[in-house]
Amino acid sequence: MNLYAIRAIYVFEMARTGRTLMQSIASPILTTALYFIVFGAAIGSRMGEIDGISYASFIIPGLMMLSLLGESISNASFGIYFPKFTGTSYELLSAPVSAFEIVIGFVGAAATKSVLIGLLILVTARFFVDYQIIHPVWMVTFLLLTALTFSMFGFIIGLWADDFQKLQIIPMMIITPLTFLGGAFYSINMLPPFWQKVTLFNPVVYLISGFRWSFYGIADVNVGISIAMILVFMLLCLSGIWLIFRTGYRLKS
Amino acid sequence: MDPIISIRNVSKVFPSGLRALNDINLDIRRGEIFALLGPNGAGKTTLISTICGIVTASAGTITVDGHDIVSDYRAARSKIGLVPQELATAAFESVLPQMNFSRGLFGKPADAAHIEKVLRDLSLWDKRNAKIITLSGGMKRRVLIAKALSHEPEVLFLDEPTAGVDVELRHDMWQMVRELRERGVTIILTTHYIEEAEEMADRIGVINGGEIKVVEEKTVLMNKLGKKQLTLTLQQTLSQIPAGLANYPLELSPEGDVLIYTFDVQKEHTGIPELLRELGRHGIDFKDLHSSQSSLEEIFVSLVKESA
Ligand SMILES: Nc1ncnc2c1ncn2[C@@H]1O[C@H](COP(=O)(O)OP(=O)(O)OP(=O)(O)O)[C@@H](O)[C@H]1O
Ligand SMILES: [Mg+2]
C-alpha cells in the first residue's frame, strides 16, 4: 500500500478546496439560509406539521442530502476530470500507485469536503429552526456512507466525462430532479397513491427517508431498507470503478 | 551487466487501428544516455509512454531493472522519472507543493533538503512559492523536470526536453543531464535537435514508422554511416571536371575554384592517393585541402529516407 501517495492525492485535493474556500463555504450557507427563509419562514408558516414535526425542521435532513449529493458528485468528478483535461494525469498513471489508492485519495477528499459542508448546513439551520437528532450515530453513519458513495459516483462521472458538459449533465439532469422528487421537501405519504408507488423507484427517497429517521425517528420507508439501498449503491459504484480501472477505460489508450 | 530496461517484441496498435509500435526490441544499458531519434509521429512518445505505464502495450513485455512493468508495476515505476513532451502542469498550484505531491505519489517520505537541492539545481528555488501558471514556458519545463527528479529516479525519460528552450537553458540542461549520469542515473531522451544527440548521447536509436531502424554507439554510428568529404581549394579555377576524372565522385563548385570528393569512411580504400595522383597528372594544383565528416543530422536524414 502506497500510503504516501494516498496522502499526496488527499492533501492536493484538500488544498484545491482550500483555495476556493469562500465559494465552497459561502454558497452552501447562503443556499440553506434562502431555503429556510422561503420554505421555512414564508411557506412553512402556512403549512401544518408533518408527523408532528414543524415544516422548517422537517426539511433539514432533505436539504443536507441535497447538498451532500451535489457536493460529493461535483467535487469528486471535477477532481479526477481536471487532471485528464490538463494532461497532468500522466503523473498519476506513471506513478507506482494502484487504482484503489487513487480512488481513496480522490474520493476521501471529496467525501471529507461534502461532510464538512453537510455539518455546516446543520449549524446554519440552528439559526433558523430548532431540531433534535435522536440517533446521532446513525445520522453520522448516513452522512459518511452517502458522502462516500456519491463521491465514488462522482469519480466515475469524472472518468467518463470527456468534456465539461458531460461533467455537469448527470448532476443536473438526473441527481437534482431525483433529490427534489425524493422527498426533500415533503413526505411521500403526501403524494397520491399512484405516485407513492412510482417514487419508490427513486433511490434518493431511501437516502432522505433514512437520514430523516436519524433526526426525528420518522421515516417514509423502513430504515433497514434505506441502509441496504445505500450499501447496494456503494457496491455498484465500487464495481464500476473496479471495472473502469481494470479496462483502463478513458484513462489509458 | 544486465540492461536496466529491456523491451521485448513490443507492439502498440491504437483503437483507431494505427500501428504506432511494431515489434520493438531494445535494451537500455545501465547508466547510459540514450537518444531516441525519429521524425514526427515515429512512435517515440508512444514507446516512452508504454514503458512508463501510460499506454498499454498490445503485445510484448518490458522490464525495468528486472521488474515487469505490468505484474510488478510498483517496483518498476518507482524507479522511473518522466518528463513529458507536453507542458502539462497543475496551473493553479505553486511549485513547492507540486514537488511534494510528486514525491509522495512515488511513495517516498517527505525530504525538504532533497527538494530544495533539485529546485536550486534547476534555478527554481526563488520561484518555489509562485503559481505555475505565472511561470514562463521554459520555467514550466524545468518544473516538470524537477517533479520527475523529486523522487530520485534511477531512470529519467526526457521527451523533447529542449523543445522551445533557449540556448542558455539548453546548455544548462545538458549540464544537468551529464551530472545526473555521473550519479548513475540512466537517461533516455528524445530530440529533434541532432546536435543534442551528437553532443550528449552514448548510444543512439533511430525509430521510424514504429520500428527501430538502428541502435548503435554514437561514434560507431557516425563512422559506419558517415561520409567523409575531401575539399580541395584550387590554384586555378576550372570550367569543368576533366574527362579523365569522370569515374571519381567529384563535384565542382559553381565558381570552379573548389573540388569536393566524397568517400565512405567504412571502405578500407579511400581512393585519395589515386585521386591526388590523377590530379597531378592533369596539372591541377591545389592550395588547401581538408576533410570533414557528415553530421548525425545528415546520417539521420539518409536513414529515414531509406526506410520511407
Ligand atoms: N492516443 C492515441 N490514439 C491514436 N493514435 C495515437 C495516439 N497517440 C499517438 N498516436 C499516433 O501514433 C503515432 C506515433 O505517435 P508518437 O506521439 O509516439 O510520435 P512521436 O515520435 O513522439 O512524434 P513527435 O516527434 O511529433 O513527438 C502517430 O501517428 C500518432 O498519431
Ligand atoms: Mg513525441
Question: What features would you describe in this structure?
Answer:
The complex is a heterodimer of chains A (253) and B (308). Chain A is mainly alpha-helical. Chain A has one domain (3-247). Chain A is built from ten helices and no strands. The longest helix of chain A has 32 residues, at 55-86. Chain A is globular. In chain A, 45% of the residues are buried. Chain B is of the alpha/beta class and 308 residues long. Chain B has two domains: 5-222, P-loop containing nucleotide triphosphate hydrolases (Rossmann fold), CATH 3.40.50; 227-307, Alpha-Beta Plaits (2-Layer Sandwich), CATH 3.30.70. In chain B, the strands form three sheets. A six-stranded mixed beta sheet of chain B has the order 6-7-8-3-9-10, with helices on both faces. A four-stranded antiparallel beta sheet of chain B has the order 2-1-4-5. The longest helix of chain B has 16 residues, at 167-182. Chain B is elongated and about 80 Å long. Chain A binds chain B through residues 2, 4-5, 7-9, 11-12, 15-16, 19, 83, 86-88, 90-98, 248, 252-253, and chain B through 14-15, 49, 52-56, 73-78, 80, 82, 84, 86, 88-93, 97, 100-109, 147. The structure holds adenosine-5'-triphosphate (ATP) and magnesium ion (MG). The site of adenosine-5'-triphosphate (ATP) has 13 residues of chain B, from helix 1.
